[in-house]
Backbone:
């Protein structure tokens, strides 16, 4: 039996329903599950109880949080950062689609290793990914397999989404025809991906979701049939919606109604759905999302970088909506630090006033909120019986000098740092701010090599 005792943290932030925080708290992790949370000495083990070597981890100088949960990402984009820097969403996509058309297994594996390593070092224990570009050379499973392999290497709990596009430029969509698939092909390959990879068991490290890309890149038929497929297979649904005013105008012109109304008519609101962005919502839309228990993946940095706007997160939370946090793709964020995203989100929300969001609310969105988006009731809090996903953030370094008044708030308010230690399923993934099961330098080197190949190919294609 694997047993880890994390001792004497400055504060253990449980994220339970009561918001319990335990000064000087400790945690016992046994075989991937939290067995005890409290303060003082470890309770005596009853005769016949768990045995095995007990590893002790010094929690002094750290704040213990549930592992952070990332509710939206595009890992393949990690190797195409800092491009189309002054474009809005549609211009940015038009600039990058021709480059992404060359995506292959080597690209996805290298990009995923970089992106997932970044996520782990930021304290993220669970992440999703939305991969929707499948060139004609792909069999629809190879690119998912590449990122799943990367997640296993880094050690994160992984929820990849089998994305899709079937509405190309020639049919009125935004993406070029070279990177869209036939609807029947998408549905068949998505069905196979779920059957091959999805693990519905409690504590699963790998789950699959069904995720047509967006209203301007998929047909209504694909949206309807994807929803039916996901519900038949018992998996979750994900898509982008209401990200920009351009999308709003596209939906009004094409469908005669706003983006969220389109989703509602297609049967795409419900407790098994989470939506990325939701920047441009009416008051009625906010009520629809909350009333239907639909989740929202809030992506503040990407929305600001692309000039899309600021999602009405305060209204959503006040209405009782399930809101998680997403870094979005690294080509529209240029980074993948989930703690930094929590800080950005808190500050962006405060455009509505200094009291619009506290540090603790931002952390709750980044933990419990993400778990709700992904349909997980076994992660997101530090409670007995939950999976042993724990992030220990140091609060005693240079960046936190003078922040002793509130070490929990300091985790968000002060300059975001690497996590000191990260446990996923009770296994150490980051120790002393370094990856344990993967070589950071090798990952970065390989990422740069493949990125140069991508850039060279893009230049050749542009000059041809």
Residues:
């Amino acid at each position: 039996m694997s047993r880890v005792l994390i001792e004497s943290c400055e504060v253990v932030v449980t994220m339970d329903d009561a918001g319990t925080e335990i000064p000087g708290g400790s945690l016992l992790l046994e075989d991937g599950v939290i067995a005890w949370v409290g303060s003082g000495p470890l309770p005596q083990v009853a005769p016949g109880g768990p045995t095995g070597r007990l590893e002790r981890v010094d929690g002094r100088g750290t704040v213990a949080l549930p592992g952070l949960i990332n509710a939206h990402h595009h890992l393949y984009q990690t190797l195409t950062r800092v491009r189309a820097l002054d474009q809005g969403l549609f211009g940015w996509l038009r600039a990058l689609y021709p480059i992404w058309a060359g995506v292959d297994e080597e690209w996805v594996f290298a990009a995923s290793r970089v992106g997932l390593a970044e996520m782990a070092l930021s304290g993220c224990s669970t992440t999703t990914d939305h991969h929707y570009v499948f060139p004609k050379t792909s069999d629809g499973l190879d690119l998912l397999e590449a990122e799943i392999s990367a997640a296993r290497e880094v050690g994160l709990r992984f929820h990849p989404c089998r994305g899709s596009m079937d509405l190309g430029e020639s049919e009125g969509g935004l993406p070029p025809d070279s990177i869209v698939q036939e609807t029947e092909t998408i549905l068949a390959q998505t069905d196979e991906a779920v059957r091959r990879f999805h693990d519905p068991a409690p504590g699963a490290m790998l789950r699959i979701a069904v995720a047509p890309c967006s209203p301007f890149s998929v047909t209504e038929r694909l949206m309807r049939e994807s929803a039916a497929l996901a519900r038949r297979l018992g998996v979750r649904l994900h898509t982008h919606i209401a990200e920009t005013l351009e999308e709003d105008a596209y939906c009004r012109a094409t469908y005669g109604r706003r983006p969220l109304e389109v989703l509602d008519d297609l049967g795409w609101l419900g407790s098994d759905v989470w939506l990325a962005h939701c920047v441009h919502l009416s008051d009625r839309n906010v009520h629809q999302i909350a009333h239907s228990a639909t989740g929202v993946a809030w992506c503040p940095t990407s929305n600001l970088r692309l000039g899309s706007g600021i999602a009405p997160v305060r209204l959503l939370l006040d209405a009782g909506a399930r809101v998680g946090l997403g870094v979005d793709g690294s080509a529209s964020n240029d980074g993948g630090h989930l703690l930094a995203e929590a800080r950005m989100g808190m500050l962006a929300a405060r455009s509505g006033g200094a009291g619009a969001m506290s540090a603790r609310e931002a952390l709750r969105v980044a933990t419990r909120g993400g778990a709700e988006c992904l349909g997980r009731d076994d992660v997101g809090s530090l409670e007995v019986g939950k999976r042993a996903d724990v992030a220990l953030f140091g609060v005693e370094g240079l960046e936190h000098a003078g922040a002793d008044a509130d070490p929990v708030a300091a985790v968000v308010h002060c300059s975001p740092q690497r996590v000191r230690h990260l446990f996923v399923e009770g296994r150490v993934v980051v120790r002393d701010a370094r990856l344990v099961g993967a070589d950071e330098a090798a990952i970065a080197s390989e990422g740069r090599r493949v990125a140069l190949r991508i850039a060279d190919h893009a230049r050749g294609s542009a000059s041809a």
